[in-house]
Amino acid sequence: MGVVFAGQGDAGRTLALLWRAAGSPTPRPRGPKPALSVDAIVDAAIEVADEQGMAALSMRAVGERLGRTAMALYTYVPNKTELIDLMHDRALAELPTTYATDEGWRAATTRWAGDTWAFYLRHPWVLQVSQARPALGPHEYAALETVVGILRATRLPAQGLRRIVGTLFHLVRGAARTAAEARQAASETGVADTEWWSTRAALLQEVAPDFAESYPMVTWLESAPDTVPAQLADESAPYLEGEAKKAFDAGLEVLLDGVEAAVARAGG
To answer: How crowded is residue 70: how many other Cβ atoms within 10 Å of its Cβ?
Structure first.
């Protein structure tokens, strides 16, 4: 997966489109009903990216899906850079914005993380939009508002909570990216994880017969019962995708343990 940076277009024009503010360049064609709209273009672009990936996204591809030329789209969305910002924010609207906290902040955070993981796997192209420079759209802020609202119940100070939220997003995005890349690897190479690992595991034994002596810590780590050899018997799911989910679940548990410890240190 490559990286796409948001916010590369004209700042005022992009934010006006994201927030549909006064002065937005969205045209108002004469007639009873416009043939196109910003929302229709963004929805079509998301369909293209979901089905074919970010690499296939172009104004021409979106126009073809809508039965229009690329030039017809530029009246509504100035260029592809603005379109990606709009797509990213529009997709985030799928995420829930409320979570019951009757079972406590930890249970709610776990549900939020699971929903966000599933969202990324539905729209893996979203993972290519770098968080170094966010799009700053309303749904992006809503997603942040939601998780902060859950964790506010910890009563931790804003500075510490901000870093915890950042770490949570890194965990979910990183694990989901590995799972998405596992799916992409199998589809693009035509080689399943089981076949890839089986071939290389056998060859590695031939070329490195002293592997266990050279890498004793790695050998010990791989001796766990749920590592590659046991997984090779399961043809139903990509090995790496399954491991990414296990790492996500384990990492989330450890991270939330740490948050609880921070709450305890702060006096409850």
So the answer is: 14
